[in-house]
Amino acid sequence: MAVWLDGRKVFLVLLLGLLLVFIYSITLKKPEGRFKRINDDHFLFDVHNDTNNSPYRASVETLPSKKVEGDEEQWNKLKESSKVRKRLPNAIIIGVRKGGTRALLEFLKIHPKIKACPVEVHFFDNSKTYQLGLDWYREKMPKSQADDITIEKTPAYFVTDKVPERLYQMSSTVKLIVIVRDPSERAISDYVQVLFKNRGLLPPFEKFITKGKAEKVLRTSTSTVQIGVYVEHLKRWLEYFPLSQLHFVSGEELTSNPAKELQAVEKFLNIKPFIKEEHFYINKTKRFPCFTSLVENKKKKNWGCLSESKGRPHPSIRDDIRKLLQDYYRPYNEEFYKLVGRDFHWP
Ligand code: A3P
């Protein structure tokens, strides 16, 4: 009787062991279910299948501890995607100059999946740098994992003729972000920047932006005015990229409600929501959103605000000149709203 009972125990233990081995082998053989391919160079971590508490854990940690027989190709793919190395960007802030591009990039960096290039690279808009080739460009990028978003910003891209074609040649799937702002305000901001660089040696805005003594005709040929004709620049991009590959951020909304605008960018980039209202506060002196101490090491420097070159005071502009600008831009703005499917409510 006792011998028979022992035999039954051994049998049950063996059965249980076999069952465990079977379950373990099933989970090892399906690692591809955890990744979603978005383009040739990048994988996105599928957070829904993630059993890890932190969705931002390096994907190397999710690799099986050893190779499974017959799964060599899959194993190599996973190994490659987990490597930390320099990669070409899979998202670029292409403009617009003085739209709030620096604020947008710095704010996006809060997200652990965003790896941003600290400087404007001017690769595609400058023939000299462009000739240096994609390896040179890649070297300028920060190190990233394949499921990160590698991003750079060069606002000159949006308005430079050759850029859409060149960028398309690098990647037809790259995600493009444009931060736009009331073009009249943008023109004033642009003037203030040029004034600063010329150490104040510039005629007043009213004279600078108009032609003739009467100051009643806008100097539309100047880049200060031309950059704000967003719809015309956009049309050149649409010759190469579908509208769905471009995302438009409101410069005004980024200032008044940064978290909401950034959450829309997270969605566009297909990364898990991370950025929250608590990451920002409005600095009373600067009157712009700055980082709270929730953003590591940011609050300590400059009260968490961007540098002094961002958010400069503007001169007061004569009403008739402001109206001249607004009347000029209005039809272009209307066309732009229709094309992108969003009304930015500029005057
Ligand atoms: P002004 O300095 O004229 O106010 P860019 O980074 O593209 O050069 O844009 C600069 C503009 O970003 C600033 O123009 C400012 O209006 C805007 N901006 C948006 N958010 C900001 C922030 N949190 N801090 C400072 N400037 C901000």
Topology of this structure?
Elements: H1 2-29, E1 35-39, E2 42-45, H2 72-81, E3 85-86, E4 91-95, H3 101-108, E5 114-116, H4 127-130, H5 133-139, E6 143-144, E7 149-153, H6 163-170, E8 175-180, H7 183-197, H8 205-208, E9 210-211, E10 217-218, H9 223-226, H10 230-238, E11 246-250, H11 251-256, H12 258-269, E12 280-283, E13 288-291, H13 319-340
Parallel strand pairs: 4-7, 4-8, 5-7, 8-11
Antiparallel strand pairs: 1-2, 3-6, 9-10, 12-13
List keywords for this structure.
single chain; 347 residues; alpha/beta; Rossmann fold; five-stranded parallel sheet; two-stranded antiparallel sheet; 13 strands; 39% helix; binds adenosine-3'-5'-diphosphate
Largest sheet properties: 5 strands, parallel
**Series of secondary-structure elements, N-terminal to C-terminal:** HEEHEEHEHHEEHEHHEEHHEHHEEH
CATH C-level label of one domain:
Alpha Beta
CATH topology of one domain: Rossmann fold
Low-confidence runs (pLDDT<50, min 5 residues)? 26-65
Count of alpha and pi helical runs: 13
Question: CATH-wise, what's the superfamily of one domain?
Answer: P-loop containing nucleotide triphosphate hydrolases
E-strand count = 13
Compose a concise summary of this entry.
The protein has 347 residues and is of the alpha/beta class.
Q: How would you explain this protein's 3D organization?
A:
By secondary structure, the chain is of the alpha/beta class. The chain contains 13 helices and 13 strands. It has helices at residues 2-29, 72-81, 101-108, 127-130, 133-139, 163-170, 183-197, 205-208, 223-226, 230-238, 251-256, 258-269, 319-340, and strands at 35-39, 42-45, 85-86, 91-95, 114-116, 143-144, 149-153, 175-180, 210-211, 217-218, 246-250, 280-283, 288-291. The strands form 5 sheets. Strands 5-7-4-8-11 form a 5-stranded parallel β-sheet. Strands 1-2 form a two-stranded antiparallel ribbon. The structure holds adenosine-3'-5'-diphosphate. Adenosine-3'-5'-diphosphate is lined by residues 97-103, 155, 189, 192, 254-255, 288-289, 306, 310-312.
